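Action item from last week, closing it out:
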Amino acid sequence: MVNISDSKPPADPRTNAEGAAAAMAKGRNGKRKARKAKPAAAPPKAAAPCSADPAPSAERSSKVLRDLGLALIATMAGVLVTWVLAPNQEVRGDQAVRDDLKEALAGQPPLRPHVIYDLDSTNGSIHAFAKPLDEATQAMLLRIKSSNIEARLKAHGPLRIADATGIRGPRTQSLTRLRISLEGNRTKPVQIQSIKARITKRSEPWAGALVEVRPQGADETQKLGFDLDSADMEARIVQDDGTFGTQRYIDVKDLKLEYGEPAALIVHAVTATCYCEWVIDVTTRSDGKVERQTIDDNGRPFRITAFAHRYESAFVWRHAPESGFRTMPPTRPADG
């Protein structure tokens, strides 16, 4: 018995022909697509010779390694050259700078000085005048109640001095004090070998007038000193009691200054005999060359006057019983 649900209808010839034609067309299209796709597969085929013959690849690898090795050697050589030569180049650069500085300083003095008069309240304030004070100025001094008289007396051209003898006894020497700042001005250290005073003018002490304010404290600054009445003008150590020692200042104090290095000097100059104009001569040695440099008051000499034996007028500041100036005898005060 035939089961109808499992049976298939008979094949249609036309349907079979169409299927065959479609199959053939599909086959032809597949072949055409395969032929068109062949160029895309070319890259894998291009690598085939490499896998087949390893010699060219080994040569290229060897060349790459050689190139890398040469580059590494060149880099290391450059670093080594820089490491070896850079310090020498830096030294040559520093030397060139020093040579230029040395040439620039050749026409300049070995020291750069800065000088000021440096009497202060610890030295007192004594103003000496070459000419007598007029009556109006004398009356003004007796009238004022302030010891600050610098501006009031300036028009009369006073010379400020101090008492060099202080409490040691009768007043015999006057004092002027300078503060000198020195800087080395050579590429090699400047050794100071001598410091001497030199008188440029000497005359009688000023005897016109004397106006004095007594000192108000003690001065503990270490100093060097010049005795302008001495035949030996070399700077000496000033001792604690104000007297000059026998040793030269530079024998006690080693003064050697590098370029730009500062040194401060406190200078005391004393005289009992004259109105003096004077300068300081400093002898230096640097790089085998000895030079002498003169230090003055910005192109003018320093000035000092001794106490005169007699003044036309004299005034002293008193704090008691009432503050103010009082007249003194016209002769030089022997004990202040």
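Closing note: The first strand starts at residue 111 and ends at 117.
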